[in-house]
Protein 1
Amino acid sequence: MDSERIRHVLESVREGDTSIDAALQILKVLPFEDLGFARVDHHRALRQGVPEVVYCPGKTDEQIVGILEKLIKQSHKALATRASSTTAEIVAQRIPSATYHATARIISVTGDLPSPVHRTGDPGSCVGTVLVASAGTADIPVAEEAAVTLTELGSPVERLYDVGVAGLHRLLSRHDTLMRANVVVVVAGMEGALASVVGGLVARPVIAVPTSVGYGASLNGLSALLTMLNSCASGVGVVNIDNGFGAAFLAHRINQVPGFGQSVE
C-alpha cells in the first residue's frame, strides 16, 4: 500500500466511484496483516516508498509464498532475497508473475497494481546512475544482489566486474564509467582494498560491501570488513558482510536525493 494507491482510493471516494465502506475495507490492512507466522507490514511502502522485502533463509517455502501473495495484493511489486532455486520454482507455481534472478538469488514478483509514476524532481525520481563494481568474479553473486535490487527499486545501473587491485589497469581503463556514476557500490572480498582505491578516485559516495570470499585468514569476510572500515579514503561507507541488498537500498536512497548532483560527463 503506497501513497499513489491511497490517493487513488481517496479520489475515488470523492468522485463517488467507491463507497466509504469499500474504502475502509481497502485501508483496514494498512498497518499490517497478521498471518500467524508473520505480520506483513503493508504500511512500509507508505513510510519508506518500498514494500517490505522478504528474507528467505529461515522461512519455509509455504511461508515465503504466503507473505509474497499478501504483499502483491497491496503493492505493485515484491522482492524476496537469498532465495534458492527450489524456493523460486515453488513460488513460480503459485505466483506466475514471479521472476528468479539466479545469480542474485532474488525473486521479483509483480502485483496487479500499476507502478507509481514519478516525475522529475519528485522524491521518487533518480538523479543518476549507480555503478556496481566487483573486485573479482567470485564476488559477482553479491554484486548481482546489489545490481538487481537497484534495478527493481528503479535506479539505473551499470556493472563493472572483475576489476580488483591485483590488476588495477582493468579499473583505470574504465575511468569514464567511474566518473559518470552518481553512487558507486564496491563489492570485494580477500583484503577488500578496492573500496579505498575507488574512494580515492571519485567525488561520489562509495558504499563498500565486504564479501566472505577468500582463504582462511580472510575470516569469512571479516578481514575485508576491517580494511573497509579503516579506509583512508573520504566518502566511503561500509555495510555488513555479503549485504548486497543493504548496499543497494542505501545507494538508491542517495540516488533519489533531489539536487544531490548529476553524473559527471
Protein 2
Amino acid sequence: MKKTFKKIALAYSGGLDTSVIIPWLRENYGCEVVAVAVDVGQAEETDHLEEKALKTGAKEFYLVDAVDEFASDYLFPVLRAGAVYEHDYLLGTSSARPLIARKQVEIALATGCDALAHGCTGKGNDQVRFELAYQALAPELAIVAPWREWDIVSREDAIDYATSRGISVPVTKKDPYSRDRNLWHLSHEGGPLEDPSFEPVESMFQLTASPEDAPEKAERVTISFEKGFPVAVDGKPLSPAKLIKTLNAIGGRHGVGRADIVENRLVGIKSRGVYETPGGTLLVEALKALETLTLDRESAHEKERIATRYAELVYFGQWFSPLREALDAFMESISQTTTGDVTLKLYKGSCSVVARKSAHSLYSQNLASFDMTGYDARDSAGFIRLFGLQTRGRKRLSPMGVEKIASNG
C-alpha cells in the first residue's frame, strides 16, 4: 500500500520534469504541494514561476533569492579548492544542488511538510545530491522521487503528459535538450547530444559567442584575489555574484568557456554534456596562475592531489560531510598568501595567462635567471648524488650489475 502524505515540498524549477510532477503528486498522493524555487542565477528562468506553479496545482509557492550566497559560500570555496571533476567539468550543477536542497528543507520544515520531492531521474547524479542533502539536514522527512515510481520513461512521454493536462513546458520534441542554468554555467544534455559523435550545432549555445564570430581584437582582463577568493576585475572591487556576472559577459563575448565532456556519473553510467562556463573558466585559469607564485612546491602538489578528492565529494553530492569541511579548512590555511593579480588575454575562444604578480610571491628573479651570481652551482653535485642514491643502488642489483660483481669475485 502506497504511503500517504499531507504536504510535500517539491524542488521546483518550472522545467519539464517538475512541471508535470506537481499534478502527478496530487493525483497519486492526494497531497498538497509546496513548490520551492531557488534562484541561483537562472536569470529570466525565474520569471512567472509562481503563476505557473499555482496554475498547475501547487498549494503554495516560494522563490528564494540565493544568488549571493551561492557565489560566496559554494562557488568560491569550490574555486579556491581547485576542484574540477575529471579535468574538465567545473561543477556548476553539482555546486548548486546542496544549496537548493537546503533551502527546500528549510521551507518544508517551516510549512509543516512531511515529505520532500525532486524531479531527478533514476539514472542521474542529482538524485544522489538532493537525497544526501535531505538525509543530512532533515532525515525525518520522507523522500518522493517520481521518476523512480511513475510510468513515464522518456522526455517525450513527459511532454505528452504535460500536453494532455494543458501544461506549458519550455521543451518541445524539436528542442529536446535538458538544460541547467545558474550563475556559474549553462549545461546542455540529452537529445542529439546522446550520440557522442554528434557535433553540437551553434544555435544550441546561449552564454558564449562562436569563437569564429568573436571579436577580431584580443581583450585583456585582470582579476584580483585575496586569500584565494576573487575580489576585483580590472581594479574594480565587486561582490562575488557581480564579479562572476561581469566575467561571464567578458568571457562569453570571446567564446571562452565551452567544454564538451563525456563524464563518469556516480551511478556508473557515462554521459555526454556540453557546458558553457565563461566566467568560471577565467577564474580557474587565473587562480592557478597566481598559485604558481604563492604556493611552495609541497603545498602546491598536495593541493592538486586533494583537489581531485574535493571535486569528487562535490560531484557525488557529499557537500554536507565532515571530510568536505575538513578539506575546506586545509584550503583556507594554504590560501592565506594567495593574494595578487593575474592578467588574462582572451581571443576567439582561448584564454591565456600573460601576467601575474603578488606581494607574497615566492618567485625570485635572481634565482630564476641564467645569471649565476649568488648561486654556487657546485652545491648541485652533492645534491644530485644523494638524490640518485636509490637509482645507483638499483643498478647494482640489475642482471648486468650482478654479473659484473661475480666476475670481479
